[in-house]
Specification:
Elements: H1 2-55, H2 67-76, E1 83-88, E2 93-96, H3 104-107, E3 114-116, E4 120-127, E5 131-138, H4 140-174, H5 178-232, H6 243-253, E6 257-262, E7 268-272, H7 274-319
Antiparallel strand pairs: 1-2, 1-5, 3-4, 4-5, 6-7
Length: 320
């Protein structure tokens, strides 16, 4: 019986380590996709807002003259986008750089969402209230980055699991009394899962915060390029107006960025959204809490099973 209890705890440690590893990988993969979507959104911002501005005067996007050529030119200006599709609110394809058949799941995806298959990343953006733009890009570089992260995470998980199993075995040998050994050994995987969950959460959060800074640098480069283009047309800097409204196109597209401003030296200052970052941190905390709760429930259920089985066995032996 004692060996079965120890085996149960060891199997629990293995199961929870694998679950934490998978959840950590999925979170990291989701972060990579969201970061890519934001970076593409920065490059699409001018096109989206110029189109939206025209639509506010009652012009239907289906009647835009030269939209097909504009879409092809926009695609060719991207390094990381293969195709662009403009869809109506009823998921009807209006314009496309490559009218290939896409899945209904991709066409019906709400604006602000993304999805992936084995080879491509699909990102959807709103164009006013009556249309959306779908980008299609290769996902091979995201897979490479994901592979590197998983190798690191698997290495940490393997080392941690080996140490946990050794510690459980050591506790079982040192404590001859079964109940004490079980209770102390059961705490070991709980501590390990808490530490592993926190580590994966902090690691993913740190990487995501770093990618947010990279995103803001990309916004700064785009803004400075627009300023240079306007000045090249002969517009003096003091004649610039509605700068705040111009910058709002980026904060509307990217939820992580709450506020942007341009300094006297054209340096872009940004303020990250505290609410959004708080939500990201809460997601990681909830993952750790759920795993711990799951662990405790499994141990409690097993303890009840052992107790009831032992009581039943004793009753049967007394009758005989």
């Amino acid at each position: 019986m004692h060996n079965k209890q120890r085996l149960m705890i060891e199997l629990l440690a293995l199961l929870l380590t694998v679950i934490t590893l998978v959840l950590g990988g999925l979170m990291y993969f989701s972060n990579l996709k969201n970061t890519r979507q934001n970076l593409i959104g920065v490059e699409l911002a001018d096109f989206i807002y110029n189109t939206d501005y025209s639509m506010k005067f009652g012009k239907r996007i289906e009647t835009f003259y030269g939209m097909q050529e504009d879409l092809l030119e926009l695609r060719d200006s991207f390094d990381d986008v293969d195709e662009l599709h403009i869809l109506s609110v009823r998921n009807r394809l209006l314009f496309s750089t490559e009218p290939a058949m896409l899945t209904e799941r991709a066409y019906s995806m709400p604006a602000g969402n993304n999805m992936s298959d084995g080879n491509h990343l699909y990102c959807m953006y709103a164009v006013g209230d009556d249309a959306r733009i779908l980008t299609v890009s290769k996902i091979s570089d995201i897979h490479r980055e994901m592979g590197s992260y998983l190798l690191k995470l698997v290495g940490i998980a393997a080392v941690g699991l080996v140490l946990v199993l050794l510690l459980i075995h050591l506790v079982w040998r040192l404590l001859l009394e079964g109940k004490s050994a079980y209770r102390i050994a059961a705490v070991v995987p709980l501590i390990w899962i808490a530490a592993f969950s926190v580590m994966t959460g902090v690691d993913a959060y740190r990487d995501y915060a770093g990618s947010s800074r990279e995103l803001c640098e990309s916004i700064g480069e785009s803004v400075q390029a627009d300023i240079a283009n306007v000045e090249a047309l002969g517009v003096a800097r003091e004649d610039f107006y509605e700068v705040e409204a111009y910058l709002q196109r980026y904060t509307d597209l990217i939820p992580e960025v709450e506020e942007l401003s341009i300094g006297e030296d054209d340096e872009i200052s940004y303020k990250m959204s505290a609410d959004y970052l708080r939500k990201m941190a809460l997601d990681y905390v909830l993952q750790a809490v759920l795993l711990l709760t799951f662990s405790i429930l499994i141990l409690a259920e097993y303890q009840l099973f052992v107790t009831n089985t032992g009581t039943l066995t004793e009753g049967q032996n007394g009758t005989d």
